[in-house]
Each structure stands twice: as C-alpha cells, then as structure tokens.
Task: inverse folding
C-alpha cells in the first residue's frame, strides 16, 4: 500500500436516521451509485464485511464496503462505506393506496474517502520515484483530492435525499 | 499567554446561541455554506443525524471548515447544531435550537515540530517569542470572522423571533 491522503475525518462523515425507511432499497441505491461512478470493478470486491445478528424480533447489521477507482498507474481513489444498522424491525406502512413493508430502526452510514498513491512498481527506483512525485505527480494530487471530495459529498447528499433529510 | 498547538479565538466551549421558536433550516443551510464559500473555507458536514421522535424530530448536525493561512497556520471553525422538538406549524417549522460555534487556529498543522522533544522546544520558542504578534493578529482576525458568522446566525434566527 502506498501513501494515503485522507479527505474525510478518520471516522468518516456520518449520516444517521432514526426512523422508518426501505433499507433494501437504500442498500441497492448506494451500491448502484458506486457502480455508476466506477468505484466497483467486480461485485465480489465491494463487500468486505456483512454481519447480521438477530435478537428477539430485531436485527443488527454491520456492513462494510470498499470501492476504488484507478485513475492511473500512480493514483487511486478509495471510498469506504460502512453501515451500522441497529434494532431493525419490519413494519407495514400505507403509502398512498399501497401497503409496503418498511424497516424501522437506527440507520448509521459512514463514508470515508482518500487518494492513494499506488507506487508499488516504483519501489525499486526510490530516487526516481521521489523525482517523479516532486516534478510530475504532485501537481495532479490537488485535482484528485477535489474530485474525490466532490464525489464523497455527492454520495452523502444522495443518501440524505433518499432518506428525505435536510440538504443544502 | 502561552500558545500551544490550538489557539482558541472563541472560549474553549464555544459561543452558544439558544432559540426556541420558528426556524428555517433550509435558509440556515444555504446561507452558512455561502458564508464559508465567501471566506474561502473548505467546508465539511461531519455528521447529520435525524431521529424521528413523537414530540418532534431531533437533528444533530456537525459542520467543520478549515482555511490554510500558510504552511504553518490553519483556521478552523466548528459548528454543532442541536435541534429538538422540530414540528411543522402551518408553513413554518418550530423547534428548540442550540448552536455552538468554535473557532481556533491550528499551529504546525503538518506536525513538523511535534516529533522530538527538541523540536517541541523550538515550537514553543517560535510561537511564544518569534511569531507571537503574528498569532495575536490572526487570533483577532479569526475572532472577527467567527463573530461575523455568529451575527449571521442571529440574523437568520432573529427574522423569525
């Protein structure tokens, strides 16, 4: 692993909703969002952790995703999404004329992102690596930082829109 | 006054605005973000929590913004919003709102001087002798900016009082 330039606080940025939502739909929505923006190369690489615990009628879910987008041989954008869903119970709600099954609980989603330098191939040329970074690659770093920053907040905004939370 | 790595321009616990009554969250959102854009801060929403409660929704929003002054100093402004008992009354929202504003200067944010005791001594000397006046000047500048933001919040909330 090369050098990492984090864009979010170490714990990530957090969106939390205590109430009712369609979690299956939210899960699909975020997955599609990451796929559409090229953060998922292969589906099996996305999900790093999926823990589901049931106690009584309630569920607890811990899900960790890791999305990455290779920009060049040198740079990579990483986005990690973590779900912590507590006390989920299924309820039936009337939406318009339709009865739907929704999930009621405490939904916490954390997003963290960073720019990574994947310089494994350069490790044998340490002097050349330094020169290349100082002269060529460093100029592109702020551009990629900006790109991943915008994408991170786009995702946060999309989640907030999905959950009908207040947005800027 | 001895300067450490964080120099607070506001009291350590921050400035508190507390209001009970009508609130327009959308207007606060857009105006505050514009304010940070105008002052060239990098804005970040660290947390957005909303809880659906019978007495009205509860919102906790944490914003943080930073601006690099040079390679050594960085301004930080942190805002915590706690909105409770948020209910729709007519076309407006009513709630209990608490806003906490904190502003500070982060010295040596690249942590160049924090690695060895010798460097930490140099850090102490540099802050408290060589650039003391500069820090005081920046502290005043940040204080004015935070007060400007404080006024903006009051104006946004005053409108509905």
Result:
């Amino acid at each position: 692993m090369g050098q990492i330039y984090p864009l979010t606080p170490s714990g990530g940025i957090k969106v939390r909703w205590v109430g009712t939502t369609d979690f299956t739909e939210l899960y699909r929505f975020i997955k599609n969002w990451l796929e559409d923006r090229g953060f998922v190369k292969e589906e099996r690489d996305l999900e790093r952790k999926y823990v589901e615990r049931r106690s009584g009628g309630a569920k607890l879910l811990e899900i960790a995703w890791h999305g990455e987008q290779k920009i060049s041989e040198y740079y990579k954008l990483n986005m990690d999404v973590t779900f912590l869903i507590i006390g989920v119970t299924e309820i039936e709600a009337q939406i318009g004329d339709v009865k739907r099954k929704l999930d009621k609980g405490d939904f916490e989603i954390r997003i963290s992102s960073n720019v990574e330098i994947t310089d494994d191939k350069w490790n044998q040329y340490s002097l050349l690596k330094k020169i290349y970074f100082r002269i060529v690659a460093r100029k592109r770093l702020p551009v990629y930082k900006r790109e991943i920053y915008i994408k991170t907040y786009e995702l946060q905004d999309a989640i907030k829109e999905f959950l009908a939370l207040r947005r800027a | 006054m001895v300067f450490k790595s964080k120099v607070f321009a506001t009291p350590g616990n921050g400035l508190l605005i507390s209001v009970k009554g009508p609130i327009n969250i959308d207007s606060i959102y857009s105006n505050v973000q514009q304010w940070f854009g105008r002052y060239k801060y990098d804005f970040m929403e660290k947390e957005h929590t909303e809880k659906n409660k019978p007495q009205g929704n509860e919102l906790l929003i944490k914003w943080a913004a930073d601006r690099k002054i040079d390679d050594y100093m960085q301004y930080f402004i942190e805002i915590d919003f706690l909105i409770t008992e948020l209910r729709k009354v007519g076309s407006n929202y009513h709630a209990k709102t608490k806003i906490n504003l904190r502003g500070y200067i982060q010295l040596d944010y690249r942590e160049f001087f924090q690695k060895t005791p010798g460097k930490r001594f140099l850090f102490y000397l540099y802050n408290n002798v060589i650039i003391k006046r500069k820090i005081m000047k920046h502290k005043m500048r940040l204080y004015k900016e935070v007060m400007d933001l404080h006024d903006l919040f009051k104006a946004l909330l005053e409108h509905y009082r």
Remarks:
- Residues 4-162 of chain A form one domain.
- Chain A has four helices and six strands.
- Chain A has a mean pLDDT of 88.
- The helical segments of chain A are 23-36, 43-46, 126-135, 141-162.
